[in-house]
Design a protein that fits this description.
Number of strands: 11
Structural class: alpha+beta
Number of helices: 3
Oligomer: single chain
Strand order of the largest sheet: 6-11-7-8-9-10
Largest sheet: 6 strands, antiparallel
Helix content: 10-25%
Radius of gyration: 26 Å
Strand content: 35-45%
Number of domains: 2
Length: 155
């Protein structure tokens, strides 16, 4: 995941809490340092030492936090590690549409058989009319898909 120039410039401090390292903005780093010195959050700190925009903070609940400016190499290494999470494939469930309402978008498989879904999943928009469900497909076609108690393969 690459960050834009503005986002990369904002992430200029490293915050290490109990061994877990993250990039934070200068504002967030200074806010945490300031909060450790001011009331009422000052009472949460057991021990603290701070110089300019670096700090070692030990909280009363046992957390140990180290905040310091990041070097360009560290910023590059930590931003390169962040990768977008893959979107999970929809898992089909054999169920009624109870809990859905008109206008909800669901992933639906055609060929409603209890043995398993058939074909490719399709995003449809549901509409309830007179106790019956209708699905509007991406091509604009609307189709009756069953009554309120009918079961479908949806996710």
């Amino acid at each position: 995941m690459s960050l834009s120039n503005n986002e990369a410039l904002d992430l200029t401090h490293i915050r290490t809490e109990n061994g877990s390292t993250t990039l934070v903005t200068t504002r967030a780093a200074l806010d945490e340092i300031e909060a450790g010195m001011m009331r009422p959050t000052k009472r949460l700190v057991r021990q603290m030492s701070a110089v300019r925009s670096s700090a070692n903070i030990e909280y009363r609940d046992g957390r140990k936090v180290d905040i310091r400016p990041a070097t360009p190499d560290e910023i590059a290494a930590l931003t390169a590690l962040k990768q977008p999470e893959p979107t999970p494939a929809p898992t089909p469930q054999w169920r009624t549409l109870k809990g859905y309402k008109t206008g909800d978008t669901v992933t639906r498989w055609d060929g409603d058989r209890k043995s398993g879904p058939i074909g490719e999943p399709t995003e449809v928009i549901l509409r309830m009319y007179s106790g019956c469900w209708y699905a509007t497909y991406p091509n604009g076609r609307e189709r009756f898909i069953g009554g309120s108690a009918s079961k479908h393969w949806v996710s």
